[in-house]
User: Fold these one by one.
Assistant:
Number 1:
Amino acid sequence: MAKYLILIYGNEQRWADMPAEQQPVHDAAHRAFSAAAGGRVLAAEQLEFTSTATTLRSDPHGRVVTTDGPFLETKEALGGFYLLEAADLDEAIALASQLPEVHADHSGVEIRPVVDHG
Amino acid sequence: MSEDVVAAVAEAHRREWARVFATTAALTRDLDLAEECVQDAYARALVVWEQDGVPDRPGAWLTTAARNRARDVRRHESVFRRTMPLLVADESVPGPDHATVEDDRLRLVFTCCHPALAPEAQVALTLRFVCGLSTAEVAHLFLIQESAMAARITRAKKKISAARIPYRVPGPDQLTDRVGAVLDVIHLVFTTGHTAPLGGRLDRPDLAESAIRLARMMHVLMPNDAEVSGLLALLLLIDAHSDARVSAGGRLLLLSEQDRSRWNADMIKEGVALVTQALRRQPPTRYAVQAAIAAVHAEAPTWPDTDWSEIVALYDVLLQLWPSPVVALNRAVGIGFRDGPAAGLAALDPLLDEPALAPYGYLSAARADFLRQLRAWGPAAEAYQEALALTDNQVERDFLEARLSSVRAASA
């Protein structure tokens, strides 16, 4: 078995503006996904919006500089993740394609294999 | 070392490499290791065949040698290798020892054409590992440096192992989604073989043959799929012309100039039967319609007998299924043959601003030909020059240059 991190990206404004009646449908889709994936979900979290993010880098003198905002300012931001266990990429794709963000027009998911250190 | 043995090994490399590789990869489930073991088997052949003579079935000898080498490596490096990601094999199919070579190649095709790989990587991997071209040859076909192609192939192999792209034919629930990429790659292998992008020869018949063999494998896997039947029909109907495409002097012959008695009647018969079957499926599919167009040409006893109304009607359907500028170009050319060169020029006109056609010499060549028929010698010469500036294949260039001198002579 291998591990894959499923990164959920989308337009935060569109997530914030999601109609009230849409929210329970969206949540139910995630619960259905978790039920289908069963024990293959090793971890999963929804993230607060990037307006709450804090980024740390160092300046040329090696001092740590703290700034407000995400590491990269992009139109589509990381909104959450699942850490999955799957036999191979095809199984990971089959599972991840059930996520509701794959089917919305402003969002999608990225599948990243996790390095296996043995 | 005797020249006979060197020649036999070279011949076996050309003819058998792809099959030896597919069978070895089925065992190693690691493309790099399979490559090393196959390389090693050919090196051993040089020594062993010198002592014992060339075996009756060189391919079988090489496969056994490569697989034995792979088992040795596995045994000695088992501790190290256990931590390395492997190609994921399908446990539900019979082990490689029982599988046929064709099964191994089919699995390899689906691995190489996985949609998680970039399209240009899919084609490169297929040419390298399924068709058995060297990295240098693949680079040459795509007009890029060998080092750049080597890097592209290495990156793709790394993704296959790190992301665990499986080494298997997808199950029935995924097969329909996955077959499109495989067909597109097979089609590209064929067209690359049919008109090699540059060099002194018009075609690479070995690639066209490989593509037809792969299309046949897909047809065995999915006999009722209209797209698969359509692609196989298309390749057969186009390849049926291959003996008639170039004159004895090496000049490219247009469909209108070809000796149709030299077309391969068996291939045409098989292609027409397949396209008839494929067209029964609704809605029509892209390759089936393209094959139907090729079938109209194949069934016309002479060039003037070509049913241009039918061809334009089929291009109309194709343009709906696949709205591509190249299809629009072919449709406009069909209109020119149906309604005369002036109508053809008018149909080509809207395509002149199409950026996708700008690097494509065929638009200029088609305009040049209609202008020539209209005896507009000056503009025709200009259009032939434009076409020449965009064409690298020497056989095609010879054709365009001959036409250019003839319109220049006519205008003088």
Number 2:
Amino acid sequence: MIEFTNVGLRYGQGPEILKDLTFRIEPGSFHFLTGPSGSGKTSLLKLLLLSLKPTRGTVTMFGEDVSDLDQDRLLLMRRHIGIVFQEFRLLDHLTTFENVALPLRVLGQPEHHYRANVEELLDWVGLGERMHAHPALLSGGEKQRAAIARAVIGRPDILLADEPTGNLDPDLSVRLVTLFAELNRTGTTIILATHELTLLDNFAFPRMVLHGGELVFHEQGQTAGEARRS
Amino acid sequence: MSETMNEAVRPPTDAAPPPSRPARHRTTPIVPERSVAGRTLMLLIAIMTFLSAATLGGVVLVQKSAVAWSSDVGREVTIQIKPVEGEVMESNLRLAVSMAKATPGVASARALTLQESQDLLRPWLGEGLDLSTLEIPRLVTVQLSDPRDADVEKLANDLKSIKGASLDTHAAWRKQLNTMAGTVVISGIIALALIVAATVLAVIFATRGAMATNQEIVDVLHFIGASNGFIAGEFQGRFLMIGLRGGIIGGLAAILFFFVISLVAGNVSPTGAGAELGMLFGRFSIGYDGVAGIIAVVPVIAAMTAVTSRLTVRRFLSQIS
């Protein structure tokens, strides 16, 4: 589904942020992406979101080399990728329902066509009773669940999450990652970036550890302590 | 790319949707109304629409007056007979009238009386002057039934037999009038073009400001898969409404302005002087076609606002893509 071959990335004439990344992500897998601040996690997610192109190497997604794609084709491919940010990035003037429905609205679907599905998804993430509330009235956990619902309402094949638990307390963070794990069980490929190693101890998913722009894979079941030592 | 997402979580889209909660009545615009400097831009567009409509109305007024005046003057020629020693003025006048009446295309001809001729000179020579002691030129006014068919050349030739007689077709006046009207029309078109250019620039600046204010919305729309066309459409819709409101306000103000002007012009001199002013400058009324022209300015301004904002957004998005 995703294949990186000798991928390097630099901004302008600056130093190389990502160096010789070569890896493959299989469909339906769940990976944590971790590493210290400044290690290049967000840059790697931007490559995966197709909002950046590598300065060298090849990125293949859904069987196509993304460097060969024009803007229209990139746009179509991006619609198969959902993204969740640490700072939620909900639109404050829209209700929770409207925020979650936004990806379907931009596709030109009429509200009566998607209303039932959005409501059901909001019920599933526990926001059924908050659908008419604006983001300013939601708690951090509610906002993040709304952001997740928005990311998955378009049925993406890949779901990327950039520090989704960064603004949540530890207990809520575990519950949120559990939500991602449930989504993964339905077939969605998930890459969740976080620097909270203690959070990872609760889950036995493989880890991609970035350090100094280089990537190391750790297989399923490895603990946070082992990842740190390696 | 496969559709693998959440079949267990949510029903497939082709399944009958379950009963849903009551729908909200209005979908919130993606670009919030308050995030665009709408009131300021609307006021600016209203002013620009008013100026466009006032310019257009002014051009229509001048054009109408010029056409009417030119047409009136063109339906009349004047025979002037200067006093010549040894000639009898009254018999020459009668001869000139009969020559005129015998000319094809002439509807009527009448010699002005001595009193009428003196009255015409009075405004230039002043009151209290005894004109009876002066030999003054006399005039014969000739009304043409159809200026195109009238044989004015034959009349001019016939008049050569009367000493001191000459024919004035007012051609120089008409030419000058048409030149003046043409100049006003061209000036109006240039003014309209400048107003349009200023409006376009203002909309470009306002759109750029709105894009900067709504950068977060643009980013969110981008990463959820919105096309540049969709994003541009959202901004275009917002600016179309601002353009329409501003245009309607400016257009209505212009129609009211011309209505008041026509009322004031009619009331200043309702008698003879007013009629003379009307003859000279027209009736200060733009008429139904002028009102229609002003109404037509409104959608043009609104559409121009919307298209300008769309092009600005598309350009902005293509630069950041």
Number 3:
Amino acid sequence: MWLLMSANYMSSVELKDVAKRYGEISAVDNVDLSVKPGEIFGLLGPNGSGKSTTLKMLLGLVQPDMGSVEVLGINVEKDPIAVKRQVGYVPESPRLYEFLTGIEYLDFIGDIYGVRTEEKRERINEYLKALELKGREGDMISSYSEGMKQKVALISAFIHRPRLLILDEPLSGLDPRSARIVKDLLHELKAQGVTTLMSTHILEIAQALCGRIAIMYQGRLLALGTMDELRQRASMPGSDLEDIFLKLTGTGDIKAVVEELLK
Amino acid sequence: MNWKNVAHLIRVDMKSGRLLRGRRLTKYRESRLFTYLLYGGALTLGLAVGAIAGFIYNGISNVTDPQLMSLFHKGLLDLFLSLPTLVLIYSMVFTMMQQIQRSGVKLSVQAPYWLPITWEEHTLASILANLLGFLLVSIIFIGSAIIVLSIFIGSVAYAALTFFAMLASAFMASAITELFRILQVRFIGAVYKSSGRAAVWVRFAGSLLFFIVFYIVYFFLTSGAGAIAFVQTVASAQGAMWFIPFVWLGMALTSFINGLPLQTLIFLTLSLLFILSLFYAAVILNRRLGLYEPPAITVSRGVYAPRTGFLGKLGFSTVEAALIRKDLKAFTRRRELMYIFVLPIVILIMPLVQSLGATGASMPTGASLPLFALVFLMPGALIAMSMGNLIIGEEGAAMWRIYSAPISAKSLVKSKYFFIVFFSALVTTVTGIIGAAAFHPSVRAILIGSTESFLLMFALGAVSLTNGIKGADFTELPRPRMMRPLWGLINLIACFVVGIAILIPFIPYALSFVPFVSTRPTIDLYQAVVISAVIAVVIALVAYRMALRNARELLTKAEM
């Protein structure tokens, strides 16, 4: 059971007027964003839209040029370590220490987050069994398939029972059973008050999992809301997220592109 | 055999060197002129050296006794005779070193099996590509020199045959290296992918053993007395070893110079058959194992028991202890990090082989103290310098874990610094014990040597860690970079300056060992130790604070 202390903050993630520039390029442009505790929130956008920079700012890895970032009620710039302690993070295509065995890696992660030895052992075993890694935990990570590495990365995000999960393409490479387990787990955690902020390019997953969705484009927040609110915003009643996404990001000229390629 | 395919593959292999040189892969431009200039330069230089040697030979022959001249002439022909075997040996050393250096790159230029290219073409291209560069340059240089010289001594045909034999020897060496490379992928690759505690130590000990054997052979062959004795042995004992295929080219030359055309032809044919058999063996192995993916072998499993361990008792937090344990595994399991242990091995073997192995005699007493100082001071200092350089960059693409975990700058620097000092101390202790056993220094020399060695470790460890954080390069493809070249250079200079600063109080004493310098030590050795300690401590403290500042900056400017 994921035991949580009562939250003394209104939003798990609070970005106020945040901007970040890299020279001439505006990576994040005056973004305001608030994610409520216990919400599964989707951050979508084409490549280079500023999602990764936004996620990095949440962990204090990139300092914004202006605005403020608060995670779990803590100012990230002032105390990044306190934030990291309560966040579980899976980057897009996570690189693990391939010279460690699966169990050694998870043990290392447990130690980094200060999980007590007995709890650590118990949790690692539970996750290994659930994600069908039992029996391979003693093998070098270098011998794992991409899907197995993704499972290890996910376990390492869950192991310390964080209050906020920041997941970049969390289901990438997972077999259907494991993907379903992770999806169900995220739903269960939501019920227990754990917030999930996920970024994905698989829009069906975002549509199925996320309560609210934000669409970023060229550093700006184009749209934010529930599926119904997004449909309204795009004036596309009954449409799915893919059509809405393509319309809002101005990349809807797919048919013309395909026709051009077939010439 | 489609020769165009072979040529294309050779060009691809040559271009893979760009990855080694660490050039930017965008907007890449390369002048071919320099490559051709290198071979042209070797040819021109070889012709010039050969001509000069020929004129000298002519000059000597005009004024020297004919009997002596005939001995000199025979000596020259003996030298020609030993060239193919010498080329074989240094080609093998060179191509194998090249393979070690390019092991990571080789993975990224793996055979594109879906293309219409045969394994014969792949294998031939790989063997020929290995010969390009320094190896071919040196053969062109030596070959052109001996051909021009042979005009003066009247043995042009013999020199031409020698040149051909040298090329054949180099090909032979490269084919052997290719065979080893494929076998290495199969067997060592499997060991590297194996798991379990025993496997870790098999890998570690195996790698160290490889380097020890490699460098003993290398220094034995390249150290002055050993090399001369070796050439003499090769020239005189070839006949006695006729049954070894590697000397058949030399035998062909011997037969040729002795006017035995049939034997020459037989040995040449046998040599060519042997080269062909090596080539086809490599082709067969490549066909079977060229795309081999070693399976993960579990050597021993054992029950893994997480624990805080001894480090906790030493006052390290759980986070710091976890980082230290992780680094310990990294440096004993990752091939590219294990190479760091080559440094102390080289430093240890070089003087030991030179003093004992090559000459077979023990070291004169006067010369043993500087060698002992070398063995005692250098390994730990170099390990501290290189480890500090790499220990942040070695995190590679997995650095996201450090960035995103609750690891403070203080914990990061403390754990990494402890690890550097711990490993350097361990290495110094081992090399010091071997050095003491080999060179029999006084107790005072051991005491001062160990103190200075530790001072160097503390100071250089802190300085290189500071630079290592600043210059860390987390790029992993095609192989782990770990350190930006500019910062590597800065670190080298900084460590050199710091090392000199710490050892400066001993300079008057060290001067007394230099021949023809009459300066006697004007400072008591123990006073020198105290001054040196003060300098080292100040440097270590300042560098440690700088490392903390750099680490804070690193953790807030993630480059994932």
